Amino acid sequence: MDKILVTGGLGFIGSHTVVELQNEGFEVVIIDNLSNSSINVLEGITAISGKSPIFERLELKDKSAVQNFFSKNKDIKGVIHFAASKAVGESVQEPLMYYENNLNTLIYLLQELVSKPDSNFIFSSSCTVYGQADEMPITENAPIKPAESPYGNTKQIGEEIIKDTCKVKPNFKAIALRYFNPIGAHPSAIIGELPIGIPQNLVPFITQTGAGLRETLSVFGDDYPTPDGTCIRDYIHVVDLARAHVIALKRLLNKKNTVNYETFNIGTGVGSSVLEVINSFERVSNKSLNYKIADRREGDVISAYADTTKANTQLGWKSKSSLDDAMLSAWKWEKNVRKL
């Protein structure tokens, strides 16, 4: 069994990826500082997969702690790096926090990995690297526009750091997965998206409003140049996304990569508006959602959905779940968490 390090492995995407890795027979070590996650997720991962991953509570911003971890764990065969702050709105308000957390942690990890004879690295990137793209759907060759937020900028800079490292370190192999909008939960409803405090993403805000935790859902802008005036995104089921990480990791471990730095869009290829997501929730939950139109939110692009041809053909991955599938799983998870 290859030992794989998953940073941020108790977070939303990380926890689902750990489950998929363990189901595929990998031995998993999780590093998480629990800043935006709960230790209880560890029990959920174990309950679903039947195996308990190794867990270390560690602050990746502490360079000496990262060095110490790798000196004790010399048999790590691959790293999937999720540990980053990820809320667009918060990044606009707290840019220095985002640059420190998202870039320093990446650099400290890479400094350890490049000294190994063979390193395999999967980077949690984002469609935000494209900014407001000129054409839809977005291909991997789309120009990298000026970032719309500090969060988006940290992903652009992160990719540049990795790409520059790959140029001079042939033993270091990396894949950046540019995901669109992960939603949903594991079909067991044992793990899912559980933001601390007020949700920064649409779907948990929808499900919390449906559950009565939030009085009203704010739709940020209805005057965009889209069919119904609300922003369009590519919403992908988190389990589909988790599977993409396992497939990408195997690509590197089996030396199937064509160059030592590759990028792939991970989405469904279908754009859905905010109102369409609300309608989907109402459909699968049989509930009417209380929402209001609010002012546009700084940092939001109008439309972003993926061209997934490269991931489908070269990576051998394809999304399986529909928007309704994802919304139903998110609602089941919300009801389970709230004991509804």
Can you lay out the helices and strands and say which pair or pack?
Elements: E1 3-7, H1 12-23, E2 27-32, H2 41-49, E3 54-57, H3 63-72, E4 76-81, H4 88-93, H5 95-113, E5 119-126, H6 150-168, E6 172-179, E7 181-183, H7 202-210, E8 217-220, E9 232-233, E10 235-237, H8 238-253, E11 261-266, E12 272-273, H9 274-285, E13 291-294, E14 303-304, H10 309-315, H11 323-338
Verbal overview:
The chain has 340 residues and is of the alpha/beta class. It is 40% helix and 19% strand. It contains eleven helices and 14 strands. The chain has helices at 12-23, 41-49, 63-72, 88-93, 95-113, 150-168, 202-210, 238-253, 274-285, 309-315, 323-338; strands at 3-7, 27-32, 54-57, 76-81, 119-126, 172-179, 181-183, 217-220, 232-233, 235-237, 261-266, 272-273, 291-294, 303-304. The strands form four sheets. Strands 3-2-1-4-5-6-11 form a seven-stranded parallel sheet, sandwiched between helices. Strands 12-9-14 form a three-stranded mixed sheet. Strands 7-10 form a two-stranded parallel sheet. The longest helix has 19 residues, at 95-113. It is globular, with a radius of gyration of 19 Å.
Brief descriptors of the model:
seven-stranded parallel beta sheet, three-stranded mixed beta sheet, 340 residues, 11 helices, alpha/beta
Short characterization:
This protein is of the alpha/beta class and 340 residues long. The protein is built from eleven helices and 14 strands.
